[in-house]
Amino acid sequence: MRAVVYDRYGSPDVLRLEDVPTPVPARGEVLVEVVATSINLSDWEALHGSPGYARFGGLFTPRRHILGSDIAGRVAATGPEVTAFSVGDEVFGDNLQRLGGFAEYAVAPASALALKPSALTFAEASTIPQSGAIALQAVARGKAGERMLLNGAGGGAGAFAVQLATRAGLHVTGVDNAAKLDFLRALGADEVIDYRAQDFTRTGPYDLVVDLVASRSVFAYRRSLAPGGRFLMVGGTLRALLRLLTLGTLVGAVSRTRLGVMVVREGPAHFAPLAELVAAGEVRAHIDSVFPLEEVPAALVHHGEGRALGKVVVAVRES
Ligand SMILES: NC(=O)c1ccc[n+]([C@@H]2O[C@H](COP(=O)([O-])OP(=O)(O)OC[C@H]3O[C@@H](n4cnc5c(N)ncnc54)[C@H](OP(=O)(O)O)[C@@H]3O)[C@@H](O)[C@H]2O)c1
């Protein structure tokens, strides 16, 4: 099969299209004929090996050689003990543990997959698993009427979270670069902030701050919160992560706020509810652009340069 592979950390230049053996599903696994896969910041991080936590399991060289965690496609074969799916089923899921979506076939644990709602295209379905699980879990931390700020709101997870948060009756402030602010308003954000022009830790206070790209100090985050407010890091630098896990707990305890890290639960139970909303037309899966498999490096560059509004999709084959 054709696959986009890499064997050292670096820029998209280290990726190459190759013919590699088609993987074989083991017990509990499914072989998926990939139709579409979407790009997540986690792909960019695993490509570069940065932040440091992206090297867990592969300190000097990558453990997995084919990136791509969000997949949508058809079941091509099932391994022993798989009862939930049959050959030909249309499925989608976040294959974050195994990766392999930038290829014609990928093996995934059956537990990571769900049947694709027929109202969704494969491209739409591929945008939902990872971003959707993050967005649903982040928004669930807020209550109607609260002021929620989303940092990194114009990307994959953020675009879903803005829509879900406004539907849930939160007052939403979206932070991203200037070129994404009209997009955030169109998604329903009540306020928008250009992160290059304004410091959101001085514009609040907010009841809930969710940071998809955290890099600030614990004290800056504390400043952004109202009494009783919560700060949650979803992604960002290793330094921000370590500070939050240590000093964050202490600062939260003495200032009657909570500062911590959101560990995103994976699996169909955590993304399928969003797929139903998208299928019903209540939430939009915003696809910025679609690239063919051989242009995965260009797709990653486009995503990494910060021009993408919502999700970038890789169409691996005709649906
Ligand atoms: N905690 C967990 O268990 C878990 C699990 C899976 C994924 N994650 C993390 O969740 C995050 C999901 O991100 P995603 O896929 O939605 O990313 P994305 O699509 O790349 O979106 C990130 C957005 O943040 C913007 N941005 C970059 N730097 C910024 C800054 N300093 N201030 C404000 N905005 C900034 C980007 O725009 P520009 O770059 O163009 O400016 C982009 O619009 C990732 O960090 C991933 O590692 C966490």
Automatic annotation (TrEMBL):
Q: Which residues form a coiled coil?
A: none
Domain Enoyl reductase (ER), which positions? 10-314
SUPFAM superfamilies according to UniProt: GroES-like, NAD(P)-binding Rossmann-fold domains
Instruction: List the InterPro entries hit by this protein, alphabetically.
Output: ADH-like_N, Chloroplast_QOR, ER, GroES-like_sf, NAD(P)-bd_dom_sf
* Top-rank taxon, per record: Bacteria
* Alphabetical list of Pfam families matching this protein: ADH_N, ADH_zinc_N_2
Q: What is this protein called?
A: NAD(P)-dependent alcohol dehydrogenase
Task: Name the species this protein comes from.
Answer: Microbacterium alkaliflavum
